[in-house]
Amino acid sequence: MLKKLFGFDARVMSVKTEILAGITTFLTMAYILALNPDVLSLAGMDKHAVFTTTVIASILGTVIMACWAKLPFAQAPGVGLNAFFVFTICKEMGYSWQFALTAVFIEGIIFILLTLSNLREAIVDAIPASLKNAISVGIGLFIAFIGLQNSGIIVSNPATMVSLGDITSGSALLAVIGILITTVLLILKVKGALLLGILTTTVIGIPMGITHYGGVMSIPPSIEPIFMKFEWSSVLSTNMAIVVMTMLFVDMFDTIGTLVGVSTKAGMMQNGKIPNAKRAFMADAIATTAGAVLGTSTVTTFVESASGVAEGGRSGLTAMTTAVCFLIAIFFAPVFLAVPAAATAPVLFLVGLMMMSPIKDIDLNDFSEAVPAFVCIVFMPLTISISNGILLGIISYVFINVLSRKFNKLHLSVYILCVLFILKYFL
Asked: Of the candidates 340, 305, 110, which has an alpha carbon nearest to the alpha carbon of residue 211?
């Protein structure tokens, strides 16, 4: 039954491992339950309603990923995309949140059509092998940086952009303790080391005044204030087209980057392709469309899924476990939201390390492969964008190999991608 439902293979997989992996993924991405309502409320949306909608949209996308794509990846409203929703569309451009939700809905419909046409899958297949490996490494640095930043180990600095925070107290100290504990658990090969690391760090945070216990249960707020609140009057405007295309571009390559990077690290790629890629993309597209109806920003595959994969998750059972955790969270939000960022930061940091391993498969002596790969790796964390890393990596790959007269390495599809990516930065 598990094989039929989730692609679970009892010969090489363990139910216990898949469940632990699913819980670990949930705990590393549970911050979205607090973050998404906070961000979208800045656009005037009802914060409590957004919490419920965030949970429902995450469950929907993750269940589709689990049962149809049968992959260990979880979905939820994307962090960068919710910021674009609020600060660009609503604040900078001056549109209402209803306008922004309409754009997300249209984007979702277009995504469904692109997925049915196999275009998204073709784009993945067109990415050179060295860049696929680089994507995994870049994402590793990206999520490690997020963990360090969320915990206060890395802080902003006007003079140097970033610098070391105060690691002798507060969240930063707790995160350092968590990194040490989780590392030792990994060295000792303790099963569920990442999850135990999160839980132990959370408990240690109680006497430090960082973990705040706010009760046990709460009734899910109504989504009525934001449900199906679309604004169709501007649907044919130029600005709507620009907003939709920008969302489409960023979401597409964030999702592609996450799926390729995590699948590569997990050894799940089959002849350079993601298994059930079309279904994985469709899960993303359906969840985005449904999420807009429910009242939230673009839903995407979460890079934190790497934590569950690092814990051993390989089938849809991992994703289903994460979805069940989200379902429980809607009733026990105070408990789950008690896990501080300092407790999940160690896992993000160590998973970042684990995702570095594909770098050994990049031929660093061949500069036509190594330089584009390095561009891809470096620009993900430095621009806080998976999509920028992929776009600039492919553009540099084409230019370097064309100027080096290595035309035989380049397929027509790579040239097309390069042109589109260049237009993205100039238009």
From this structure: 340
